[in-house]
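So, is this right?
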Amino acid sequence: MKNKFFKSVVSVISSIVITSTMLIGCYNDKAEKSGQLSGNINVWSWNEELLTSGIIDKFEEAYPNVKVNLITIPNDNNAYSTKLIATLRSGVNAPDVYLAESANVKRLCNMDYYEDLSKGPYNAEKLTDQMVPYTVKLGRNDNDNSIRALTWQATPGGYFYRRSLAKKYLGTDDINEVQKMMTSMEDFIKLGEKIRDESNGEVSLLANYSELLYVVLANRSEGWVKDGKLIIDPAMEEYLDLATEIRSKSLDINAKQWTPKWTESMSSGEVFGFMLPTWGLSNTLQANAPDTEGDWAFVKAPSSYYWGGTWIGMYGDGKKKDISWEFIKFVTTNKDFLQQYAKDSGDFVNNKAVQDTISNSEEGNNSFLNGQNVYKSYSSLVDSINGDIITEYDETLNNLWSDSVDLYMSGNISREDVIENFKEKVKATYPKLEV
């Protein structure tokens, strides 16, 4: 009996010693790697998000001998992607790491300048089990299906509305009740008519009809291009009808996105709500209407959509791949970093374990939304996002389509001319496409 007890104790102690040794070993390996990794990398982006969000600071804190230099190139008229591609082609002063957004990620991932992260020593396929599927799909090369870029974000969208306006003109600001009023696009229009009538035309459903573009784009059956041929999905013509209806019924204030009139309307009280993705909460609403904290709520759009997101990969001919990969891996897969980043920034991170933790804790309660756990709402939307319809042409074709629709809405071309105007622009931009 004593021998059995003694052996059991020895066994337990041995297990503790072995486990402790393994943990210490893992810690020492990480600490040693962190200490040994030294040098600097250049990262290209179209904005300063990596700096302002504290991402670079967190990485440099974990890797004190590494310096990340962020070079920003504004993306007006696709300037960022134009300069980036020209630089990558020349190979002169190319970035070690460069970012892509949802509109151009497919284009950049298909160009073969990004390093193949599926192969060793990266083995990124093993790192994606906690990521939202559509985000991984968008970062793949279409030719060989390899991962070229990863993202730390998922960006489902919805509708942010003013609670005080809902109570005044709808009789309730309850999220569940307002949600029932917009289960379809037809219901959404009726909601806008009710708000218009009850407010005597002083409050509009949207700032601009174009806020519905990404909702429509996400719910097409096919993307812009298939087998080298331009596809104009029927949903895009429905978008024309939707834009016409919104404007003719005075359901928007004709405030074009990203103009001063648009951002000012977030605090003026003349707009009931805004179609925005996850990042729109902190980067747009909170930034432009800080005095309205607590007066907002989030509900699902009439149909699921996403808007934006930032992908990160490294230059295949870069000379600092060890640092570049550690930076990418840290930003997109380090759970401790992602959870703290989510808490600090309010951003919706691309890690299901972190999403679940925050969705079921007070960490997800957002003060700007009067304590609503918006993480729980976001989490319920991500799996319904379709990444199959995104093409490498989206950045340009989305803009060309918007330009043609704007011409129509401003009275410069007829409804019948929109499609032809768009096709002519596509032919001029992509002569090789079958239009």
About this structure: The radius of gyration is 25 Å. The mean pLDDT is 92.
